[in-house]
What does this fold into?
Amino acid sequence: MSYYGWAPYVSVAERRKKAEKAATKAKKSGASLSPIEPYRGAIAKTFWGKAWCDNLETYSDYANRMPRGRTYVRNGSVIHLAITEGQVQAQVMGSSLYQVTVKVTQVPLTQWQAIGKDCSGSIDSLVELLQGKLSSAVMHRICTPRIGLFPAPKEISFSCSCPDSASMCKHIAAVLYGVGARLDQAPELLFGLRRVDAKELVMQAGGGLPKSKKGPAAGKVLDESMLADVFGIEMDEALVAPQKASSNKRKLSAKKIATKGPKKLVASPVTKVKESITSRKAAAAHMPADTKRVAKLKKTVSAWLK
It folds into this structure.
């Protein structure tokens, strides 16, 4: 029985039983439901889910009804919630099962372009974007109310089949919070809801990123003069000299072909270095005590270069 046009109060336990029955009935009829499972604590735990809920709570338009919505979404009253392009379709169990529709307008083109421009050179990974692991400045820009990715109240319209005459009933509030919980699992749905492409933002904002050109660390490169000092040998020019231009190589090749005579076997520069190191290691055993420290240093550098 209802009083003054209001539906009678239904306890949480009773709503859960009704929700379970409705879900079972839907499955038997072949319908596929995507519920927000009941839980305790924070509605959302990841960056995008939290940001969505925080954005809802900044709008005074929603202040009166949002607390009841939090209760409904936590106790499992949202038995179905599907996010598609520009729209959210949901079913919420109250005194009866109610159908909720939330529509969100597309991000204005100029606003979307401004986001990409302001974040230029700061986004180079779609994964990092969806995980919310970009710099705080970039994430703040994307999430700023009215100029970022999240919709303002005027960009959201909704309807519910319940008899509540309020512009926003508790069932709609539960669905709006349910969107935040769903973004924990699939943050890319936010971009679909606003009808924009996350990959496009990465392309726009990542275009100015410099390409990484990493070389060996400065401490890992030894000058040829240092090698000579450490090992006490003259480094062969073929080992340390830079490569000559291709034109010089062609000249040398032509000269070698023109030269006739028996070929001589010449030890490679690397072999010379190794032989010199071996001989000096043998001599190190007879070094006086004050030179052993230098020998140890040579041995360390030799092992490091291998």
Remarks:
- The first strand starts at residue 78 and ends at 84.
- Confidence is low (pLDDT under 50) at residues 1-5, 208-245.
